Structure formats: C-alpha cells, structure tokens
Amino acid sequence: MAMIYNSIPYFPTQVSFFEEVAMELIEARYGMKAETAVMKLVCKIYKENGYYMVWNEEQCTLFTNKVGREIAKEEMQGIVETLMEKGFFDKETYKEHGILTSVEIQRVWLEATKRRKRDLESLPYMLVKTEESDKGGKDGKVDKETDGMQNPQNCMQDADNFTENADNSEQNKTEQNKANENRELPPLTPPPGEDVGVWRKYSFIEFPGYAYNKNTHNLECLLLALDGLHINDPNDTKAILKLSDYGRLGNEVWKIIHATKWSIVNSKGKYLIGALNKARTQG
C-alpha cells in the first residue's frame, strides 16, 4: 500500500520508553495491554497524518476495535486522557481541536521529513516553531502565558502579577536576541545519560536552542528540581523558566532553590516566581 505523503515509515523510540512515568502509569491502571495500545496509536499517527490525528468518540470506537477485544472503549479513552495528563499528548490542542499531537511527535516528524518540500506555514496544529516558519511569519501555536495568576496563601513572599512581570518587554527583547543566536530546533532526544522522563514531562514547552549549551546553562537540572518540588502548574513552570533564563548558570534561581526551606512553603511555584522577581528587582 502506498504511503500517505505526510506519513513516515518509521520513527525512533527510546529504550527507556516503557519506563517513563506516563507508560508506567497506564500499565498500572490498565495492564500491559495499554502499552501495546499506545504503540499502535503512535504508529497510526506517524502512518496517517504524520504528526497528529483526530480523536473523538467514533475514532476511539474504531481504534479500540482494531486494537482487540481485550481492551474496552472506555479504557482506551482513559489511556488517552492519562497520556494527556502526563504531557505525552498536548492537552490544550485536544481540548481546542480534538487532535492528538505533541511537541516531541512533531519534532520527530519534522526531522524525518526535512528533505521533502513542505509549506510549514500551512500545516495545522503545529506546536513547534522552526527556522522555516520564522522566515515566513508565525503560524501555529506557541507557548502562551496567562495575564495573571491568583496570589498564593501562606507564601513567604509577595507574588503579585508573576506571569505579567515574567513577560515584560525587556525580558522579551533579551530572549529574542538570544533566540536569534541559535534558531536551530532542540535535539529530538536528550543527550545520553540524561533523564528521558523529565524531558517527556516538559515536552509541552519549547525551549530556546541556547538553553542546551551546558557551558552556560543547566536546563535538565532545573527541570529535575521543579519536578522534585512538585511544581506542576504549566504557567508557573513557564514563568520560572523565563525568569531563570532557562537555567542559566549564575542565575538567582539556584541560590533560591538551595536556600529555601521548602517544607514550610505551600505554593512552591508562586513562591519561587515571587523570589525571582524580587531578586531581579533588587539586582
């Protein structure tokens, strides 16, 4: 059978794929049959539209029937929702368009099809910005911050207007200058020896290329620290990453993380944003 133009015949898979949090969670909830279902789902995405697929009640019924009678439609929907909950699929894209995709899936597809003639500006549901789309204007989704977040209770520092402060014009200009220095897509997979699970968890964030320079940044360590502090609010995470310049060495984020007695802080994400804002103001 002829392959659809947008499809790719194969895709890379990490050897630790089944040890990632999302996969271990669905196995614990639904058994090993869930892992098989996920692999078939990912294969279907790459085989048909290349980097996304429509997911609704009808598609769930048809797909479940192909997977086999040992898995129920309700279980399959539960598996998909768990994958979105853990960041395997982009939850916002699904809510808005009924589409299953992710930054990682799109990066794999972009790399696999880079020799094809593609009009990236016309592609729907794109989460990844590329050099090609930057030249022709912005198309598709980019990371969005909310205009403001509620103040935390029992926080040790004032945390008003965190995201608004993190997104001021001066910060944007700095980030744009750094982005111009390195417009390449980040690696499809983390470097050898790094925690694959943490990269998968934060796959909804598009990191600037310069943040992967280990001479100036320790992005992975910062992500592991945020994960260890259970800072799970995407808006808090994005604001912290911006304020810390994505884990730049010498940034106040390292001192704050190590000096704070976190056991007495309730809203850890908002506290850390407040502390970073205060340090930047005083600096």
TrEMBL record:
It holds the Pfam family Lin1244_N. The lineage of its organism: Bacteria, Pseudomonadati, Bacteroidota, Bacteroidia, Bacteroidales. InterPro entries: Lin1244/Lin1753-like_N. It comes from the Bacteria. Residues 131-192 are annotated as: Disordered. This is DUF4373 domain-containing protein. PANTHER family: PRIMOSOME, DNAD SUBUNIT. Residues 149-169 have a biased composition (Polar residues). Residues 131-147, 170-184 have a biased composition (Basic and acidic residues). Residues 10-105 form the Lin1244/Lin1753-like N-terminal domain.
